[in-house]
Records
---
Amino acid sequence: MTKADFLKKLETILEADAGSLTGTESLRDLDGWDSLAVMSTLAMLDKHFGVKVPAERIHQCRTPDDLAALAGEQVTG
Amino acid sequence: MPAAIRDVASYLPPGSLTNADLAREFPDWGVEKIARKTGIASRRIAAEGECSSDLAVAAGRALFARGACRPEDVDFLLLCTQSPDYALPTTACLVQDRLGLPTTAGALDFNLGCSGYVYGLGLAKGLVETGQARHVLLITAETYSKFLAPDDKTVRTIFGDAAAATLVSASDEDDDRAAPAIGPFVYGTDGRGAEKLIVRAGGMRQPARDGGAGDFLFMDGPEIFAFTIAAVPALVRQMLATAHLEPADVDLFVFHQANRYMLDHLRDACDIPPEKFPLCLEDTGNTVSATIPIALERAREAGALRPGMRVMLVGFGVGYSWGATMVRWTAP
């Protein structure tokens, strides 16, 4: 999956406008980044990348790019 | 003598908490979004002074009213609760008396949450098949609402109170089919998750409620979700392997009804078709160890659960504790 597609999935989770994320935003400052969004991100990582991580790992991420890094080389570009 | 489920019945307290009630209480909060995610529109809430034994007795009476057996036939009562009436005596002793079960019956409580129904079936099967009992009354009864902080919106949207009664009896049928009516079982425990879903007060480590956060249920929702993602699909695979079954051999998968969002993800991760996967929490919420028997009862009423069907039951949650079993539906 490309990074652009990853960001699109995150935009859907956050109910944010398409194309609004660049990857370097501070998650904490984003509207919609709440515990439901954390769960949706856990679900997305599992469903699309087979990556199962404790929620703590999500909480440690500061930006969308950090989240993408959890999927390792499966997110490209 | 093989053990089999003879009947199931449930009881929901009359009090309710609807999404509209929550929206009135928390006007600045997006109740609708949460409702959409959890799949819960209303929950039933026990009144002040209405305790687990009261719900348990009502569920037991509902079961007897269906005619599967009489109170005097029961020779063992297993009661699963984490919200007992008292620290002691055992809630099961109160319920034995109030239901009119014989004084020759054994009765005990066991303390498990969302995995409790599966464990209860395992204990009941053990009692029956070792000849210690012929008719085991298994009751799961929970009043989690009493653990919830009034201002904790998240847990108040999820949990509801309920009890369910199941009769597990020695089967007289001359049964040459290979599959047992209950079993095999798969169990699992990981106490590293203890802190993720906990009520700290009320045990001997913190005996008195002091008005602090420890008085109430603490739930780390995202960590619980991460746990289920990791544990449940593996549990389902292990259950199929242990029972020598393919997914297509299973007629119905009845999971603990935690919340809709979690269930949708788990169903997808386990590749289970929606028509084999009942969702039953819209008007009850998550009733902890009562969700599986309530889902069985409702599926039976809807005609989705019929005699002879092979059903997988999957429980998971607080502890962490999890378990699964296969049931060949033998009740009417």
Note: Chain B touches chain A through 17 residues (CB under 8 Å).
---
Amino acid sequence: MGIVLALSGGGAGAGAVRSRGLTTIHILNDAAWHSPGFAAVSAVTSRQFGVALAVDLYANNEDAFQSAVRLGLGSNHAPPLFEWWFGYRLQDLASTSNLLDLTPLWQKYIKLGAYNSAQMQLFSANGKAYGVPLFTNYWVMFYNVHVFAKYHLSPPKSWPGLMTIATTLKAHGVTPFGLTTGSDCTWCGFIWFEELLVRSNPLLYTNLLAGKAKYTDPSVAKIMLTWQSMINKGYFTNPGITTNGLLSAFAKGQAAMMLYGDWEGPILTQQAGLQPGTDFGVFVVPGIVPQGNRPLIVEARPLLVGKGSPQQAAAMKVADYLMSTPGQTLWARTLHVNPVNLSVATALRPSYLVRLSQAVKAGAYTLYPRYWEGTAPQLSEAVSNLMDKFTVHPSDYMQILSQAQDLANQYLK
Amino acid sequence: MPEAGVSSDAPMRVHRRPWSRRLRTLSAYLYVLPALLLTTGILLYPIAFTTGLSLFRWDLLHRAVFIGFDNYAQLLRDPFLASSFSNTLYWVVGTMVLPVGFALLFALLLNHLPGRDIFKTILFLPFVIAPAVVGLVWLFMYDPSEGVLQALLGLAGASGLMANVLSNSPSNTIAMIIAAAWRGLGVNMVLFLIGLQSIPTEVLEAAMLDGSSGFNLFRRITFPLLRPLTTVVVTLAVAAGFTTFDFVWVMTGGGPYRSSETLAVTMYRVSFVDFNFGYGAAIAVVLALIVSVFATLYVRNIVRS
């Protein structure tokens, strides 16, 4: 069961609440750290539109959160607003016709130059935009600035450069790459699989997501051998390391680099006290082949509007505000995240992402969806678990790829 | 007069008896009604609903589709179910041997020990912690980088022993059983202590006068007298072993690649991760049948003997 957090005057509780001209609508989500953002938005929407927000929080309980959304969506009291994932997971919900089409809202803001159509695609399914953009996160390598400085290293420009850094660090007793794949992060198995694949063969990555290529393809096997060789050289932390253990190892300089979405930045600051620039920096992993330099893995976080909700009109007011430049400014400033809206002042963007955001805006990168949302959900769950197994038994790579292909045959019909 | 009295009262009695009987019957039903409603609401209805659900395909998003016994047929083809079943058996054996076997041993040792209440309290304390929290504590203890067990083994020069304990099968299952045993031992020990203290001393003294002592006394007198309590403890332990979920979900999530899943974890994963509620319900039905059959056979056997 979720926890209801009332974020502004107007009270809390299940269902529609309307008192003294203030309507309270509920937002279902599973990430506690988003709550201050919704509280800030609620304060403004209460004042401007008489719509307050209350968060139904399913903290660290994705299964219960998904069940609540799935059960509510088809009913006549569908959640007015709820967070979700993009890609295939969004398609799953869109296929039920229970989501409100937000394409007109997107078109309005695209005309104003606040967004572009490529961004709209990330929040769309079956040709319609359904998501209010809360985040777009780029997947980058976080590195410990002090460790790099100690061994006179700088962010690499090429794959051999990255491997030289890894060798140097290993020789000095520092684990080059941190990776959690155990129970603490059952989904993390796909991270390096995805990165090595897209840096080696972007087209193969796209085809694999869509079921147009096979996991047993020799090119995929070659990528697994690259990963296997890195594991065998001791470039990764022990697979059983917990998320907190890894955070601590990174902060202490025992693990020098971690591959994550840029959302890891606020976590490093809030939980480990590390400051961007002085304690940690980011770089995009260089391509293993030249065409591997172009891709940038992206994940998007949409806020969806339930079509069957009796509070649809109020939800639309919040959606409109959240897409506007003032709304995105408030959201990004409160949560210290990269705003999706292109009109938000650069000064508000996290310092370590400014250059990357500008490069994306200038078209220096081609965006590829994160594996987790880029393929069928059951497949991404299972393959992540398989890759988790690979980190412990790297010699079993062909058996693992074969099992992955069996799953792909099952889920990507 | 008396005869007249009898004859005049008789029709009244004929009328009063059925009415009072009916009232008594009705009041008896009223007494059991709350329990009946509760049992129906929280036990019989879910059993009927789950059994019915096992005949459907349902992902909570789309309309449920009736597929007959397909989910049960899938059980036979599912490669993960065999490993889930064998892991569940590990748990059943593990929860019998460690928390029950050691609890009996500790109870025997503590039974005549002065100051046993202190030991009893210390050993009982873990039981008041929620299983999920115990799982988290042991997860951190097993952490290969910062875990206390790793540090202790490091001091002994054997740090490699713990490096992948939760990442390999079956070491992950064994490691989790140890965590569960740490929690469950205390309560079983207290139950056995109660049993030991309720054995009449005359019986033991008589046996000792007849020359019985040590293991022989335990085997022939103490253990048979503990049998009713042992039945309860073992039945509860076996049921807990068959339905193990929290430790596995918290400590390994059933991984890596479902290698440490138990039947209960598989049921949960299939239902709430894959959103295949019909198949999850089929696993639940089979699991419930296994536990029921075991419990019935075991209790019947004990009662007979």
Note: The mean pLDDT of chain A is 90.
